[in-house]
Design a protein that fits this description.
With about 190 residues, this protein is of the alpha/beta class. Bound molecules: adenosine-5'-diphosphate and magnesium ion.
Length: about 190
């Protein structure tokens, strides 16, 4: 059965999608069977970061709604044969993502993969909570700026309230101009999470 990991943050533009793709590739390079799932319905960026934007035919919502079967929507990475992508829909309504539907997709993916990595949308609304809903582990991506830290803190709180048994693994995004600050933040958040 797969481990389900959510990459989330609260704030947008902090590096969730990049982190999901990089973690997915690193795990796949290490021999694990990995699927990265884009929960950012409406925006859909993970396919672009993975270089698969021209290969998207069906998406997560199609599978949730029974329009397509899971194997029709899964895209195999061209470089790593054990890395797969389940893309998000660019156009459809976020309400199409139901708790029961997401549960079904995760249950169907689970026996086929070692890792299911969920790329969360920004915010604390439906899409973000659904991305967290089935996660065993969470990576919280943050930036060394107060608004990002506060939003991350809220996400950690929300995650902990909902799923108190699940571990959390905050990470700070490396800030090229101020690496020391980013590292300090990472230590602080890691300390909070323990
Ligand atoms: N570790 C990093 N260092 C510097 N820039 C990054 C890093 N991770 C992501 N970025 C850049 O930040 C922007 C937002 O990244 P993205 O992964 O789309 O964020 P999110 O999914 O949280 O909205 C992109 O331009 C991306 O290239
Ligand atoms: Mg994103």
């Amino acid at each position: 059965m797969a481990k389900v990991l959510v990459v989330t943050s609260g704030k947008g533009g902090v590096g969730k999608t990049t982190t999901t793709a990089a973690l997915g590739a690193a795990l796949a390079q290490g021999g694990q069977n990995v699927v990265v799932v884009d929960f950012d319905v409406g925006l859909r960026n993970l396919d672009l970061v993975m270089g698969a934007e021209r290969r998207v035919v069906f998406d997560l919502i199609n599978v949730v709604q029974g329009v397509a079967k899971l194997p029709q929507a899964l895209i195999r990475d061209k470089r790593l044969e054990n890395l797969w992508l389940l893309p998000a829909s660019q156009t459809r309504d976020k309400d199409a993502l139901t708790d029961e539907g997401v549960g079904r997709v995760i249950a169907e993916l689970s026996p086929r993969f070692d890792w299911i990595l969920c790329d969360s949308p920004a915010g604390i609304e439906r899409g973000a909570t659904l991305a967290m809903r089935y996660a065993d582990e969470a990576v919280i991506v943050t930036n060394p700026e107060v608004s990002s830290v506060r939003d991350s803190d809220r996400i950690i709180g929300a995650h902990h309230r909902r799923y108190p048994r699940n571990p959390r693994y905050p990470v700070a995004r490396h800030h090229s101009r101020e690496p020391g600050r980013a590292q300090g933040l990472q230590c602080r958040l890691a300390g909070d999470a323990e």
